[in-house]
């Protein structure tokens, strides 16, 4: 059974100011999935650099894979969702692949095996993200896209905050047992997958009645309305240091024990949880491009706090607060912005194009920052990237401010 454009609940939701039930259900799916993924992400930097014994340059390569390999399938997933008009089933494949990858970490011990499993997980994420966001956009009133994405990201972030806490609890009960973390993570992924299969309706998008060809999708993605935001997104993405590096920097500076490392992820996700919905609403009111660029100002401040010599609890909390603010101002705001710059028929492809640019640019950033860390050390590497980001921000703003369509 599917829900068509004509009978979808978006219009009613928009009139009453409520977020569509489909959006909430997708938020629940993302919540369980993020509990799973963040359990793994919260232990991965220490697991790779201590248990597996990778150096920082090798970790930069793995982090680059984690950040960027999803680019391989993002546009394909978005286009397949547009072309078939049933994005749920494309998303379902992506969620399933990521779930299986959790349990596949158990026998993976060498660099190549771990890189392969992480690649599979990220390919699953790349395949599912644009179709899922297309369902959210299709199910929502256009004037409240920022709010809808904010609600979804809020539920998503509840899972992202719980995941590291559960990983912390598992490691407290069974010290050093990363395998236990992977098994529990798999169980949560299965629950999220089941909610998607059983409860999320098969929302049929406008593409089902007006299918866009590959030529139209390419024309809109490369058109002037989307070109400038994509250039700005790529420029900023290349100067975005992965969370794992920031947390390793804080952990080294403050000499945190391994068991407390997952709590750094909790702090960021709690800040994200607090600010996701307010910043989504703010983006609807003052402009999504403005909030998106403003989020990178918070990221710049996080670099300065993490790269400086002043350590301690207050500085660490400040880093986590700023990083969470950055994610709240960008993660849901970008697809909300892009979805208004392309036609309904290629919405999934447009969102996927933006996410592909983010993934590729962060892949480059991870490799570059790993090299900078090896050459110059933690503090100097962060300050160099911070300086470059400060120079790039005015250019990114000029590219984005003229391209946003009114809500």
TrEMBL record:
Residues 22-404 form the Major facilitator superfamily (MFS) profile domain. It is found in: Cell membrane. InterPro entries: MFS, MFS_dom, MFS_trans_sf. Keywords: Membrane, Transmembrane, Transmembrane helix. Its main location: membrane. It is a multi-pass membrane protein. It holds the Pfam family MFS_1. It comes from the Bacteria. The keyword Metal-binding does not apply. The chain crosses the membrane at residues 39-59, 155-174, 180-201, 229-250, 256-277, 289-306, 312-329, 350-375, 381-400. This is MFS transporter. It comes from Paractinoplanes aksuensis. The lineage of its organism: Bacteria, Bacillati, Actinomycetota, Actinomycetes, Micromonosporales.
């Amino acid at each position: 059974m599917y829900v068509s454009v004509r009978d979808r609940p978006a219009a009613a939701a928009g009139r009453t100011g409520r977020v569509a039930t489909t959006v909430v259900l997708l938020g629940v799916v993302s919540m369980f999935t993020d509990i799973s993924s963040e359990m793994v992400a919260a232990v991965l930097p220490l697991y790779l650099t201590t248990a597996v014994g990778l150096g920082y340059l090798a970790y930069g390569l793995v982090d680059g894979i984690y950040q960027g390999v999803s680019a391989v399938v993002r546009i394909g997933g978005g286009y397949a969702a547009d072309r078939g008009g049933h994005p749920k089933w494309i998303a379902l494949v992506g969620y399933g692949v990521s779930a299986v990858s959790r349990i596949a970490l158990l026998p993976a011990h060498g660099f190549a095996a771990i890189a392969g499993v992480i690649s599979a997980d990220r390919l699953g994420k790349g395949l599912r993200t644009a179709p899922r966001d297309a369902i959210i956009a299709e199910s929502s009133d256009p004037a409240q896209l920022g709010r809808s994405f904010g609600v979804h990201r809020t539920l998503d972030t509840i899972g992202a905050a719980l995941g590291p806490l559960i990983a912390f609890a598992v490691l407290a009960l069974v010290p050093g047992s990363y395998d236990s973390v992977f098994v529990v993570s798999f169980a949560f992924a299965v629950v999220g997958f089941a909610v998607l299969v059983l409860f999320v309706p098969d929302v049929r998008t406008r593409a089902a009645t007006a299918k866009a060809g590959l030529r139209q999708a390419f024309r809109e993605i490369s058109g002037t309305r989307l070109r400038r935001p994509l250039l700005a997104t790529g420029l900023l993405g290349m100067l975005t240091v992965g969370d794992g590096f920031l947390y390793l920097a804080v952990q080294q500076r403050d000499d945190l024990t391994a068991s407390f490392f997952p709590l750094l992820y909790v702090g960021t996700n709690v800040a994200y949880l607090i600010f996701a919905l307010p910043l989504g609403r703010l983006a609807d009111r003052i402009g999504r491009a403005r909030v998106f660029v403003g989020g990178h100002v918070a990221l710049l401040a996080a670099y300065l706090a993490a790269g400086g010599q002043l350590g301690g609890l207050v500085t660490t909390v400040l880093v986590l607060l700023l990083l969470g603010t950055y994610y709240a101002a960008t993660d849901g705001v970008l697809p909300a912005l892009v979805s208004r710059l392309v036609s309904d028929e290629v919405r999934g492809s447009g969102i996927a194009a933006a996410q592909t640019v983010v993934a590729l640019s962060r892949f480059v950033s991870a490799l570059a920052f790993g090299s900078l860390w090896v050459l110059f050390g933690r503090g100097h590497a962060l300050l160099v990237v911070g300086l470059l980001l400060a120079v790039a921000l005015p250019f990114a703003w000029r590219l984005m401010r003229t391209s946003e369509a009114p809500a």
